[in-house]
Each structure stands twice: as structure tokens, then as C-alpha cells.
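Progress against Task 2.4 (sequence-to-structure conversion) is shown through the following example record, which the project officer requested during the mid-term review.
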Amino acid sequence: MPVNLVPFLDTLIKPFYVYGVDFIQASQKNFRLWETPLMKIYQLADPWMVYFILFPILYYQSMRMGLRILWATAITEYVCIIFKLMLHGHRPYWWIYESPYHITAPRVGQFPLTCETTPATPSEKNMISACISFILISHYCRCKGLSMQCNWTKYVAVWSGHYTIQACILLSGAFFATQFPHQSIIGTIMGSMMARRFARTNVLEISFAGFTWMMFFMVSLFSMLNGAMWVLGYDPTWAGTKASMACMKISWMDIYRDMLVEHTVRASGMILGVGLATRFFTANALKITDGCLMKIKMVHAAVGISVIVIFESFVQPPFTVAPSLYYIFQFVKYTVPPVLIITDIPFITGLAKLISSGLVDEDPGCFTQLGGDPMIPDSDEVAAPSPLGKDECCNPPRHETCCVGKEEPSRNSGKTRKRSRSRSRRAR
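C-alpha cells generated for the chain above:
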């Protein structure tokens, strides 16, 4: 983006900034006693929670749904990063001190979560949470046969939960002065649009070459955009500079890393990790079928979460290394969690069959060999159906049967009756 477009964008969006500051000050005044719950909401909306907590839980419940959520999160996070680079989105805690508005406006409070160092448009937390929530709720409505024509009260109640979550994230971001309300709304709309694209995606149909090309495309496009901005005289790290000048305490900032690069490395590493796990590291892997009891699946999820969280916490590159080596190390680190969840954890726990814990019988029909290619269906000897061979709906859709007694007549029913009458007359 050329430099002369930046003042134009700032002037265009200035009314949203002004009214956004009023909303932030009102939220900090009226919700002061809710600081701890709002902090929890803001932390739960972080993409890290999807990668390291939600993905293992969903994967061991439904393999397709878990992979779909991981794929959608990585792609959505990357799209959000690209838009952050191109859109000049200020954060409230530094914008108010750079505009004449702060002369007459009260001071905006800052918190340990306030000092984000990336551009704010669109809101990453709203965008990713909206995408994940949209996919899960649309899947639930499809399984339960909910629609506006059938069980509309439940349908409206379920989707009201989706928008309530987004409103809570918007309020938490405004309370901590990390984002303006219009940035959260943009993120919600974009996340819902991304979810419509990924709602029925079958990640297992993507080849390893597809995963690899996607990873190279993500890294290359981000690098080219950064280089083009430097050539055009636009500093891609401008947000970090403004954050360091406006943040009250430098300890609240992560001054060692460029978070846009960090998130790009994380998203591309996760994509490559899924490709490696589903295409190459499945020789000894075990798949968890529908024959597993719920507590068996939860045990797997607990073990998986513990392993990858410990791995992510303790395997950290030193900050003293060169930035290029640091990000290469981070890329390799983020390719490991999908491999652990998809191959290693099911094999280790499934091999033991948890008999020693007394949770399952000796032959529960729970674990089946995943084999070299996960797209090859299981043999007929497997007792429990595999989530790879059918849709992951818990029950078949009931759109045709949920409104018993209220079925609409067919469009051609009138024509059919006329034809039958004419035939009867001819027979007479």
C-alpha cells in the first residue's frame, strides 16, 4: 500500500474510531467488576486455544471434524494476517494519544492484555472464533435437522448463541482497549464468510502436494507483501513502533518477536503438519472408531492436550539466535503437534487398549489400523464403522421427517391428479 493511501484510510475510518473510543470508555466504566470474566473470554478466543485444546478434543470425537477445524483455523488466521498487512487498523490505546480527541476525552485504561503489537483490522479473535463457531453450529443443525422451516425455535436459539459469543468477544476487546467495535464486527463477518467455504471441506481428500503447495504459497505471499511494502516506503512493523510508544509498561509487550511473522509461521507449520501426519506417518497409527466409549475418547483428548501443551511450553528457541533461525525453529515446532495428535497419541494409548485402567473390555472394537493411506476404506471385518467412511453426523438429517403431519404438497401433485382422472375417463 503506498504511503499516500494511509492518511486517506485514517480519515475515512476516523468516525468509527471516535465513536469506538466512547464505547470503550463506557465499557471500562460499567464493566469494571467484570474484569476477570472478560479476561477469560479474551484468552479463550485466542487461536492458541483452537490449535492446542479444541483440535485434540474434536479430533478424537470425529476425525473429519477435527481436521476440518484445524484446517479452517490455519487458513482463517493467515487470511486475517494478510488483511492486517493491507489495512491500516489502529488500536485504541495508541490511537487516542495520536489524535486531537485525547485532549477532551478521559484517559483510556490499559491492562496487561492491552498492548497488542499488530494492526487491529480485522479482529483476529472475532474472525477465527466466528469461523469455528459457524462450522460447529451449522454441523449441529445439519445433524439434528434444524432449520427455519423445521424446529425454528431451537434453530434460532442455537444461532443466538453464536452471536452472543461474538458480542462477548467484542466487549472484552473493547474493555481492554485492544480493538475498536467496528474491527470486531468486520472480523465476525469475514470469519462467517470463511466458514461457509470450509463448512463441508474434507481435508482427507487433499493430497500431500496440496498441503505442501499451500504452505509454500502462504509463506511466499506474506514475504512478497512485506518486501513490496518496504519497496513502496511503507513500514510493515509500524504497529510495533506505535505500541512501544503508547504502552504503559514495556513488560506487557512481546518486544522480541514480530507477531505477524510468528502467526504466519504457526499457521503454515500446522498446515504442513497435517499433511505429513495424514500422508506419511500413518503406518503404525491407530484410528479411533465410533465403537469407542465417550470416556475413551476423552482420555485420548486429555493425553493429547497434555502432551502438546507441555511440548509447546518447554520447546522454545532462545531469543539470542538470529531472527531467521528463530522462525525456522518455530516453524518446525508447529509442525509437530498435528503429527502427535493424529498418529502418536492414538497408537500409544490404543496399543495398550487401556485394559490396565479397567475402562474397556479386552476387545472393544474401538481401535483399528489406520494404514498407509487414510483414504482407503476399512474392510468389512471391522466391527465399528469408521469416521473416514461416512459423514460425521451423529444422526442422519431429519429435514424430511421432523415436520410430520406438516408436509407440503408436491408441486406436481395437482398435475398428477388431473392425469389420473383423464386416464380413468378413457378407461370408462
